Amino acid sequence: MTACIGExxxxxxxxxxxxxxxxxxxxxxxxxxxxxxxxxxxIRGDLVALPPxxxxxxxxxxxxxxxxxxxxxxxxxxxAAVLLVVWRSGPGGPGPEPREDVARxxxxxxxxxxxxxxxGGVIREDARTYAAGDRWKVVVTCPPAASAWIDVAVYDxxxxxxxxxxxRIGCGNRxxxxxxxxITGDRANRVCVRIGADAAPERGQAPDACVTLRPE
Length: 216
Hints:
five-stranded antiparallel β-sheet, globular, six-stranded mixed β-sheet, single chain, alpha+beta, Immunoglobulin-like
């Protein structure tokens, strides 16, 4: 069997289940789905997988609630500025700068590349700098109905490294690729992905999306 019996379970949820084993819904799905069960086996055999990525709940501070009335005029001005930018980017005006971390892939749709840094047990999703001892995971966001092959490459001053094996994922929001890697040196590195809809992409082709990590 090469397709999930229903909606594929993301690598992130499977990693959390592998560590905690407390999600009964996932257990029932795995009992009937050989594809997702095989993914869980791969995660359990991955010795360098990061701990589950917990996103803390954000609650508005009291001062934020008190000062919302003061922020309302500023928010209105910001909305007007956004409308002006959109108007200028229309026909006859300059368009927005293309994002290096976003690609449109035929057969998949829009794919957004992201990275997660683990440093001394602290996980950050917005980090773009590295130091010795950091570990990195690659996450991608793509339409939930699609799936994709992802191949990771790290570019360092003309040198190319492939720290992870190509992996096929079921799309979703910030789906984590199996495995993790480290970056060493004192130069900026570009973490890139090649994306395929039906098969692992050729490594000779240009990267589809990248993010740049700089030394501290």
